[in-house]
Write a structure and sequence with these properties.
Blueprint (H helix, E strand, L loop, with lengths): L1 E2 L8 H13 L9 E2 L16 H28 L6 E4 L2 E4 L4 E3 H10 L26 E11 L5 E11 L6 H20 L30 E5 L17 H18 L13 H13 L1 H6 L3 H4 L3 E3 L1
Parallel strand pairs: 1-2, 7-8
Antiparallel strand pairs: 3-4, 4-5, 6-7, 6-9
Helix pairs in contact: 1-2, 2-3, 4-5
Length: 308
């Protein structure tokens, strides 16, 4: 498979191999996916916008359909049958009545071209460009429970639940990994990551020693579920999922913290939610008479650690 949709960690090499293997009845390990090589694939605009599988994967699927047509046509000729009576199974093609021919023999016959039907183009190669008629629209709902220490401003994420819909799921493990990674990145942006310059304009968070990237032990186990609403704009019914976690997790955690502190009069906190920023928001809200009067008394009604 030569593709212009070049993944950079999402796992499309596996997804694309699965697509081809499922349609041609071969082992996914026998499918070689080549991407990012402009000598092999001169045109390709990369992967972005949660489009690699929905667009690039569909192009692969459609090209594979062309190969299926050629395979069944040639197999029918070799078996003395009709193309409509040929089924593609695991490593072989079978005609009605039980006659079979190995996948490798059909491929060899296609390239040697010694026994092919009239009008059959030798070889088994197909190219397809795919432009969807519309965007795909994945959706979901994320909910988290947080505990905020109002004396220090520290935040603890107690539980995080995400339900997403990316249409038909090709590889559940990869989808879960995309959502988990996206949630972690979004929470990192919301709670720790920040570009800081000193008074001379020098970037002081320019390395991973200074830029606060979250670590796995900062988070609870994420509870993930999904619904399936197939997309109508591609034949596989798939949607992008690469951005689902990042889009939802930032407002989810900020809203949870603001909800936890709402009895204290806090309505908004700028990201990232560092402890000092949370603490300052509490102090500011309490220092404004109108807000302090409307809020519950922390000493009487609000525990030092509040959950929401």
């Amino acid at each position: 498979v030569l593709t212009g949709a070049s993944p950079h960690g999402q796992g499309e090499e596996t997804t694309f191999a699965q697509l081809v293997a499922d349609q041609l009845g071969v082992d996914p390990q026998d499918v070689n996916v080549v991407h990012g090589d402009t000598l092999a694939v001169p045109y390709g605009i990369g992967t972005f916008g949660s489009r690699a599988t929905a667009v690039g994967g569909t192009a692969i699927y459609m090209a594979t359909q062309k190969l299926r047509t050629k395979l069944t046509t040639l197999a029918a000729h070799l078996l003395g049958s009709k193309p409509a009576d040929i089924s593609i199974g695991r490593g072989q093609l079978t005609a009605k009545g039980g006659k079979k021919i190995p996948f490798g023999e059909v491929v060899l016959a296609a390239y040697t071209a010694r026994n092919i039907p009239s009008g059959f183009e030798p070889g088994l190669e197909a190219t397809h460009f795919f432009e969807p008629s519309n965007f795909t629209f994945p959706f979901g709902c994320h909910v988290c429970s947080v505990e905020v220490d109002i004396e220090t401003g520290e935040i603890k994420i107690e539980k995080y639940v995400a339900v997403d819909d990316c249409g038909n799921v090709i590889n559940p493990l990869l989808v879960a990994g995309q959502i988990q990674g996206g949630i972690a990145q979004g929470l990192g942006q919301a709670m720790w990551e920040e570009v800081i310059y000193n008074e001379d304009g020098q970037l002081v968070t320019g390395t991973l020693m200074d830029y606060a990237v979250p670590k796995a032990h900062f988070f609870p186990d994420f509870t993930l579920e999904h619904t399936v609403t197939p997309s109508p704009v591609n034949p596989m019914g798939v949607k992008g999922v690469g951005e689902a976690g990042t889009i939802a997790s930032t407002p989810c955690i900020v809203n949870a913290v603001c909800d936890a502190l709402s009895p204290l009069g806090v309505r908004h906190i700028e990201m990232p939610l560092k402890p000092e920023r949370v603490w300052n928001a509490i102090q500011t809200a309490q220092a404004i008479p109108s807000i302090a009067a409307a809020a519950e008394s922390p000493a009487k009604k609000i525990p030092a650690r509040r959950r929401a």
